[in-house]
Structure formats: structure tokens, C-alpha cells
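chain below, 224 aa
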Amino acid sequence: MHSVAPLETIVTETHAPITASVIWLHGLGADGYDFAGISSQLQLPAELGIRFIFPHAPVRPVTINNGLAMRAWYDIYSLNNLQHEDRTGIQVSEQAVRQLIQQQQAAGIPSTRIILAGFSQGGAIALHTGLRYPARLGGIMGLSTYLPLIPHFIDEAHVENRPTSVFLAHGEYDEMLPLILGEKTRDYLQQAGYSVEWHSYPMSHQVCPLEIADISRWLQRIIC
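prediction:
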């Protein structure tokens, strides 16, 4: 695969020695600032020493938005037929996110203390990339999302991340990506032998305070 341009990022961290990193991917049409405030909302103990990295997706035309250029991790042809997927775009974003993971490893953070997270389209890339990554990650989180490229998953998933904790959460009233997509992803991964922590909330395509509290507990459990 050809080299890809490094992603621009926003970085926040505690004042304690940094011992873990969370790479958090935004949704379609947003940017890294969309979740940049989440690090304080999670109210994590400063002594955990976590660096949060919020990359900006590249700007590209998006078919479902009449070809309008916006920040997107890959093209979406139709929300009614997610099986028609932009495999090339997904793989390019996978490579770009891998670069971020490798940068953290080069900076001295073990892969087992790197968490890959994302919301909506960013969550799809987090699941796709994290479960294929060739070194064990600390955790993988997908919020209001789905697992892309399922027909290729069994052949491409890496055994190193079979034991990795996967956090999935979804809104019960999500009209953009219906709850059933999250449930199907949960069921598929559980049947494939993954450890999935599942949550659903009475909300639409968003993040709610109860969900943030559950994410905080999960992060504190896996980063210790």
C-alpha cells in the first residue's frame, strides 16, 4: 500500500508522566475538535497519565452528500446499503491511523497502553484498524457505529487483538445508524470470540452523560 500523508491532530494530556494514549476519531463531517473536550468530561485520575489524540480526517467528496467535500474517513455511497463500501478509502484511513499508533509506540507508549476509539464513521475505522493491528492494543472503542468490510474480516483480523477489550455503545433512537447495526456488530464479534462490553442508551446519534461515565469506568479498568 502506498504511503499516506500524516494526519493533523489535536493533543491534550495530563501533567503526570504520560504512560498511555487514547486516539479518538471523529464522525463524518466533523473534525478533531468535536471530541477534544471529552478528556475533561471523562474525569479520569490525573495519575493515569493519559495523552488524548484527536486527528482530523482528510477532506474528500462524500457521495451521500451530493459529492460535497468534507472531512471523512472514507466515502459513503448510501446509508441504506452499507454493504456497498469504499474499501480503498477505509484502507487508506487504516494506514493513516496505524501511523498514529506507531508514533505513540515510538514515543515510548507500549501498544498495550494505546486505546483506539471513535464515533460513527470514526468508530468504524477504530474497529476496522484496531482489530487488524498486528500488536496487542489496550482497548478498542466504537460509539454509534458498525463494523465495516465484514466479508473480509475473518481473513484480515489479527490474532494479537483477539483478547482485546472492545467497548461498543449505541443510541436506541439513532436514526442515522440504527441500533440494529450496533447489535449486529456486537453479535458478530462475540460469535467470533471477542470480549465485547455493550451499552445502549435512550438517545439518538450522539453521546450522553451516562455513556461518558461508562467510558470513564472502562478506561480506568483497562489503563491501570
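The radius of gyration is 16 Å. The beta strands are 9-13, 20-25, 50-55, 59-62, 68-71, 114-119, 139-143, 166-171, 196-201.
thats it, cya
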